[in-house]
Write a structure and sequence with these properties.
92 residues, 2 helices, four-stranded antiparallel β-sheet, alpha+beta, two-stranded parallel sheet
C-alpha cells in the first residue's frame, strides 16, 4: 500500500493529554499550527496512530484525520507557513 498525505488535527481539553499528543505528532509529522499536522503514512499505519492517540482522549475531545488527494491544486489563504511541497491548504 502506498504512502498518503494526511492532515491530522485535534482539540484536546486536558493539558497533560494535549502535550502527550503534541509530542507524539511532532516526532512523526510536520506541524503547521499547534494542533494541525501533516503526516505521510500508509492507511493501515495511520489507523494504528489514530487508535493510539484516541485511547487517551476524553468524550469532549476531538481527533480528526483526513487523507489529502494527490496532485490537487492547493490554495493558501493568509500569510501563514506553506508546506514545502505546496500540496496542502494552510489556513492561518
Amino acid at each position: 500500500m502506498a504512502l498518503s498525505a494526511w492532515v491530522v488535527a485535534y482539540d484536546i481539553h486536558d493539558n497533560r493529554t494535549r502535550c502527550r499528543c503534541l509530542r507524539a505528532l511532532r516526532g512523526h509529522a510536520e506541524g503547521y499550527q499547534k494542533s494541525v499536522f501533516e503526516m505521510q503514512e500508509k492507511r493501515d499505519e495511520m489507523l494504528v496512530w489514530l487508535d493510539t492517540l484516541a485511547c487517551e482522549l476524553d468524550i469532549q475531545d476531538s481527533l480528526f484525520a483526513a487523507r489529502t488527494l494527490p496532485y490537487q491544486h492547493a490554495w493558501q489563504l493568509g500569510t501563514g507557513f506553506c508546506s514545502p511541497s505546496g500540496d496542502l491548504l494552510v489556513i492561518s
